[in-house]
């Protein structure tokens, strides 16, 4: 049995991590109410007090457009996404704990054909992506000092609603709700990427730690199968039996402050592939809506 600290425990991924890691482990689950991960002193003190063997950080600033449009929000994003992992890495090094941190496909610019391997050099094109990339670098910087770390890049999360009311609803939740009331909808038929079911990601994370497959380092974990938002919406409405006219549109037709990568498929070259996103979506709908 290991003592495991989960941060961002009430978020979309955090709550699934709690379920998956609770089996045969002692879990300490903290969210914003218990700790601010951008508070260096508090992080060092609390982690030194409890001395976990593993720290899983699912806390992040995720409001992609808000921080692009607002400088104050950008400052906040930098604190949570850059200082947060830096302080956590320092604390983990001090107590000799393993650190698991999550990052995003938005660290890439989307210009490469065929998808991104774990070793590809990030080149973010929006502020959120920049903060996540710099957060990654803070962890990598301590690697040489003996930090034991896993950096897991993922994309387009969906799954049971987070306990935390403030947490970001998934694309599927938003359009399913709208689809039940609207006769038609316009959805971006670009920005090809991979969806990720949070219970699958949580299980794959545990599998990775339990078996330390390929050593510490960077991993790409998403469900299999890439698609545009439009293609995913058609799949969702088909599976959910919602009849609605869905019109494909170009990305620039949506007035969003942040640019998105055109093609940000994360290639998983190290671990067994996760099941297809359609299968995961079917399960999600069955468990939560049908
Ligand atoms: N969602 C996606 O589609 C997506 C895609 C790619 C990568 N990721 C990455 O996957 C990870 C998990 O994302 P998620 O969607 O599960 O996030 P989420 O649902 O937004 O949950 C994050 C949790 O962290 C908390 N939090 C925020 N700032 C904090 C701070 N300073 N100190 C302590 N707790 C804080 C949040 O509380 P509040 O709600 O009160 O702020 C929330 O409960 C993140 O690293 C994210 O960048 C997510």
C-alpha end-to-end distance = 37 Å
Strand content: 15-25%
Radius of gyration: 19 Å
H/E series, N to C? EHEHEHHEHEEHEEEHEEHEH
CATH level-four homologous superfamily name of the domain at 3-155 and 196-222: NAD(P)-binding Rossmann-like Domain
Percentage of helical residues? Answer: 40-55%
- Report the CATH architecture of the domain at 3-155 and 196-222: 3-Layer(aba) Sandwich
Strand order of the largest sheet: 2-1-3-4-5-10
**Which molecules are bound besides the chains?**
NADP nicotinamide-adenine-dinucleotide phosphate
Please describe the biggest sheet, giving its number of strands, its sense, and whether it closes into a barrel: 6 strands, parallel
Oligomer: single chain
Structure description:
By secondary structure, the protein is an alpha/beta fold. The chain has a domain at 3-155 and 196-222: Rossmann fold, CATH 3.40.50. 40% of the residues lie in helices and 17% in strands. It has nine helices and twelve strands. The strands form four sheets. The protein has a six-stranded parallel sheet, with helices on both faces. It has a two-stranded parallel ribbon with strand order 6-9. Helix 5 links the parallel strand 4 and strand 5. Helix 1 crosses helix 7 and helix 6 (171-179) packs across helix 8 (229-240). The protein is globular and about 55 Å long. The mean pLDDT is 96. Bound molecules: NADP nicotinamide-adenine-dinucleotide phosphate. NADP nicotinamide-adenine-dinucleotide phosphate binds next to helix 1 and strand 4.
């Amino acid at each position: 049995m290991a003592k495991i600290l989960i941060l961002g425990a009430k978020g979309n991924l955090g709550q699934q991590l709690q379920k998956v890691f609770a089996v045969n482990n002692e879990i300490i689950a903290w969210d914003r109410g218990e700790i601010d991960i951008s508070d260096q002193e508090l992080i060092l003190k609390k982690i030194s007090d409890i001395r976990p063997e593993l720290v899983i950080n699912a806390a992040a600033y995720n409001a992609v457009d808000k921080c692009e449009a607002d400088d104050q929000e950008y400052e906040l994003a930098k604190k949570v996404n850059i200082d947060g992992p830096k302080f956590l890495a320092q604390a983990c090094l001090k107590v000799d704990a393993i650190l698991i941190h999550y990052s995003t496909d938005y660290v890439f610019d989307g210009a490469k054909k065929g998808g991104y391997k774990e070793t590809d050099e990030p080149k973010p094109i929006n502020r959120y992506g920049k903060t996540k990339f710099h957060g990654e670098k803070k962890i990598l910087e301590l690697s040489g000092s003996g930090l034991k770390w896993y950096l897991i890049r993922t994309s387009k999360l969906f799954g049971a609603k987070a306990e935390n009311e403030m947490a970001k609803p998934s694309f599927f939740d938003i359009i399913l709700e709208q689809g039940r009331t609207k006769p038609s909808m316009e959805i971006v038929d670009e920005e090809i990427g991979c969806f990720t079911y949070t219970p699958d990601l949580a299980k794959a994370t545990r599998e990775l730690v339990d078996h330390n497959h390929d050593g510490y380092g960077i991993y790409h974990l998403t469900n299999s199968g890439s698609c545009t938002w439009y293609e995913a919406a058609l799949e969702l409405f088909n599976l959910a039996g919602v009849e609605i006219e869905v019109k494909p549109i170009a990305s620039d037709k949506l007035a969003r402050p942040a640019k998105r990568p055109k093609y940000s498929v994360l290639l998983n070259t190290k671990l067994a592939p996760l099941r297809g996103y359609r299968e995961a979506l079917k399960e999600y709908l069955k468990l939560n809506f049908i």
